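step 3/5: co-fold with zinc ion
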Amino acid sequence: MNLETHILLRCPYCKREMAAERTDTDYPEAVRLEVRCDKCDDGDFAETMYYDAAGKHITRDPSLPANGQGNRSEPA
Ligand SMILES: [Zn+2]
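step 4/5: write tokens
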């Protein structure tokens, strides 16, 4: 899996893992995204949690650039 273009999706319930293409809303430093898969989704609000390479839960404001990373997505 190429972490530049893909992120690891992991279901915290059944532990199923799959690679997914990154989207604009993904944190650039995130390597793993934990979210309920379609099988475990019971209709409740599903929390999405991002983790970086160190396994740390990423909680920063998604609209702000990562520290020291510069601005990767300048407005058009
Ligand atoms: Zn699942």
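step 5/5: annotate
The chain is about 0% helix and 30% strand.
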